[in-house]
């Protein structure tokens, strides 16, 4: 039984009384710092997020379209993402101006002052300084409502700019009459093919005064239009914009949500919608800041997922076809790597109907797209982040008794997602872990796949699928294959052994937005087993203490997401969110209480920079809501919850539509909550797997011979191994008992497994290459420590890197040219000189602009044997966003004698204006130098 755990009753709600919870919401929280939220008007889970845009440069802190540090508004667009780390949305931008209309956003934009800006739940207003225009915004679920007050007489314009923010693939405008237009905006950004249809209605006739388009026919390709009218001082123009993902007809149907022109009536309706949702958790406190932080956090969790179907149920599916949702509502924006941890457990707690809708959406996306969503946006799979965490949401809902979706179909979809052969899953299934050789972010993927597999096993147990249960329970223990029992960390493996050097503070491509400290405690499915692996409760507690008390500084790559450091704990990013609760499992709830209270006190404030990291579609705020209540779901997919001392004493929750009741007895340390009306199923015993052995050596490539050592975790393990070199046949593989290190002198495959008490581990392998020569290299440049490819000899080992540079086979040089001298050890007749380079423009890695080979007999006087103007003659476009490799070389018509070969590759230099990282320094990535 888990220590300090409780079972919660399933909580549903109705709007209690007529209390005004919305008044506590401060939409400016998170709009500064790195919160990436937006302050505009929206309703719970609405299709429309009508908000000002102050950022159009693609900058990281502008992902939500707005940043509190800005003083320039470009306009008001109708879709926004809440706290993401990648930019998208900003569709259907309108901007009121006066005088001669312009489509230059530097001209139509306007300064503003926060003194003239207000935001509340369902409402936003601002004064635009340039033309003294007052703007008020509110929304219904699918319709944005604008009110523009022109405080000067003259020509008023409303600019529609379809080019705003992301890449416009298709822009179409139909002028229906002088009050109505229809729009299609199809765009590409994070979502590769997003459709937004809109119906724009004015309350007064407007004249199409100006436009720019790609064709003489207005209906073909429109980029921007202006609609104008002469106004008197103080005159208002009202605009309604309804959205649809499916069609013009859908947008017209959705416009019926608001059939009048009463702005205040729409605003009041928006407040009522917010109060209905926010009333699901009632908080009373004399601390106004606490109330603001709590209800804004709850508000942020309810800004998404977003309804993505028309009023008649039509939606655009993952197959880009139009479907009808029958018996459920279809949603979009599933940031599942973030939200499976806290936001979805909160939804399961307070919103049974929508939880079932989300899972039905998942199932439809599986049926139409072949797999469950990972990070779905506007019916596009972005493949951002890792894991298949839809299964966590499904398993948690099944464990907690949520009905309204097909359990069998959900299991089928979950199993199909886990049985694919991409993103390292093929190696994971074969070897029981992912190594650097297989896939980047190998440690994080192994750990998160293992948790997801446990979730699938819980579904299988509920559905009495015993073989599936056993299979996925075994996979759920794969974390043990990357746990280094000697250092006490989850570590990356390369070629069968631990990657070296190892620094647990280093943020690198073996982890997803983090380092080993931030991933070494991610075994939510087997916390008792994790504690045992660390050596027991005392040692595990000491390890947690060490993490929280270490220096608050990471090494390696600068990772903007890693913020809110307490030692190596990083509250600003999701992998750390459960860690403070782990003290409960070693009998130290007082440490959980202290850590949780510190985080609540210090990392959430009633200010624009009041979030310590990205909001991440409600996850950062869900942690606050749950922890304030004194509960957290460390293991979604389990019936039990962890507890801590409540941060806010008087909290009521509506249970099954009844009168709101306290969820705790005040002043007591433990929560007293209604029980689930479910029979608790004891988990079936499942035997522990035998972790794989470790194949250790000094390097992957060698000159003469190489010593191989095999290790395993337990003293009573027996290791068996086999070797196959160029003289062997795979069919002749015979495993022998390992007793001591051995040497090899040919290119050799080594295979090994462990036996213990009749059980056997997976068989793993490593390949060691005998170098094709005895050359050495003196690199004049300095490679980035993260991109070392095994050191200087990695450029001469005969092993070519792939397009996936994150696996560690390439050397990277930033802000400098590459220069190196290869020593052939004796004078040779030479005729061919080649070098391999890689480009991944989005990652700042670009081909060199110029390459030259020079030769020498004395390492002092060099003569050029050929050069290549890559920038001019290769035909490679720096804007090409694909990751690819190219070999460049010089072939001599007549051989020349030399001992030394110098290679010089010129760096691309500063990234140009068209690049998202404009002004930054490009990398050169080089792998192999070949000389014949």
Keywords:
single chain, alpha+beta, 18 helices, globular, disordered N terminus
Q: Termini, distance in Å?
A: 67 Å
Would you report the number of β strands? Answer: 54
- Class from secondary-structure proportions: alpha+beta
Stretches where pLDDT falls below 50 for ≥5 residues?
1-17, 216-220, 665-678
Largest sheet: 8 strands, antiparallel
Helical content (DSSP H or I, runs of 4+): 10-25%
Which secondary structure elements does this structure contain, and how are they paired or packed?
Layout: E1 5-7, E2 41-42, E3 49-53, E4 72-73, E5 75-77, E6 93-98, H1 105-108, E7 110-111, E8 117-120, E9 123-128, E10 133-139, E11 143-150, E12 154-161, E13 167-177, E14 180-188, E15 194-202, E16 207-213, E17 222-231, E18 235-244, H2 248-254, H3 263-278, E19 281-283, H4 288-301, E20 306-307, E21 314-316, E22 322-324, E23 331-332, E24 334-335, H5 336-339, H6 343-350, H7 352-369, E25 375-377, E26 380-381, H8 390-399, H9 407-418, H10 425-431, H11 442-462, H12 466-475, E27 483-484, E28 489-490, E29 493-494, E30 497-498, E31 506-507, H13 516-519, H14 527-533, H15 537-549, E32 555-556, E33 565-566, E34 569-570, H16 589-602, H17 619-629, E35 631-632, E36 640-643, E37 651-653, E38 661-662, E39 694-696, E40 701-702, E41 706-711, E42 718-725, E43 736-737, E44 742-744, E45 748-756, E46 759-760, E47 764-770, E48 776-779, E49 811-814, E50 818-839, E51 850-856, E52 863-868, H18 870-873, E53 884-906, E54 923-931
Parallel strand pairs: 31-32, 40-47
Antiparallel strand pairs: 1-36, 2-3, 3-5, 4-7, 6-12, 8-9, 9-10, 10-11, 11-18, 12-17, 13-14, 14-15, 15-18, 16-17, 19-37, 20-23, 21-22, 24-25, 25-26, 27-28, 29-30, 33-34, 35-36, 37-38, 39-41, 41-44, 42-43, 42-45, 45-46, 45-47, 48-50, 49-54, 50-53, 50-54, 51-52, 51-53
Helix pairs in contact: 4-17, 7-8, 8-9, 8-11, 9-11, 11-12
